[in-house]
């Protein structure tokens, strides 16, 4: 099946005039063709998900992400050549907005921690139930941070520095937003909960990351849990 990319105007090829439904565009990055084929077969029966491309390693994945501009990338970690962690770093350097969901069979901290610190929005295992995987894709696309309990524990256990008290620089509203980030809420859900516009919430999130010297929402959620702000 040929890959399909968005037009330069930003119009999705799967969005028809007058349609309000936007399908979630997914890029598959895994060195095993059988895995990619299995993922594609399942995801293509989902009404709201469309596989727009595949890649066999991290370097190709980062290049295809720039070309296709997917909403979500399903990324393996251990691949020959450029691995998933390096691919995540390249995506961040390119300021690519795609949300990356790590799908792997590895559970060791040596792979969990670097992947999430490099910018992954979530982490699931290859034996995940197919319906749960579809739900995970929808969740990270909606802006949620998706961490299994043991993954969050692994990240927290890697933090060697004591709490710095930097949270004292946050305003009351920013503390509220941070607490909701720790609950896994998306910007839209935070806006509804606090009766704010999404633009205002985005501003608060940016201020939180800047004040706490954090790179992304995942780190913010972990900081909140570790410092009792969740």
Descriptive account of the structure:
With 230 residues, this protein is of the alpha/beta class. Helices cover 47% and strands 12% of the residues. The chain has 10 helices and 5 strands; from the N terminus they run βαβαβαβαβαααααα. The chain has a 5-stranded parallel sheet, with helices on both faces. The model is unreliable at 1-20 and 160-165 (pLDDT under 50).
Give me some keywords for this one.
230 residues, alpha/beta, 10 helices, 12% strand, disordered N terminus
The largest pleated sheet is described as: 5 strands, parallel
Secondary structural class: alpha/beta
Radius of gyration from CA coordinates: 18 Å
* Share in β-strands: 5-15%
The succession of helices and strands, N to C, reads EHEHEHEHEHHHHHH
DSSP E strands, number: 5
Distance between the termini: 45 Å
Point out poorly predicted stretches: 1-20, 160-165
Mean pLDDT, to the nearest integer, reads 80
Any idea what the shape is? globular
Count of discrete alpha- or pi-helical segments spanning 4 or more residues: 10
Biggest β-sheet: strands ordered side by side in the sheet: 2-1-3-4-5
Share of helical residues? 40-55%
Quick recap:
The protein has 230 residues and is α/β, with parallel strands linked by helices. The chain has 10 helices and 5 strands; from the N terminus they run E-H-E-H-E-H-E-H-E-H-H-H-H-H-H.
Map the helices and strands.
Blueprint: E1 24-29, H1 33-43, E2 49-55, H2 58-68, E3 72-75, H3 84-93, E4 99-104, H4 109-117, E5 122-125, H5 130-141, H6 149-158, H7 172-182, H8 187-194, H9 198-212, H10 217-226
Parallel strand pairs: 1-2, 1-3, 3-4, 4-5
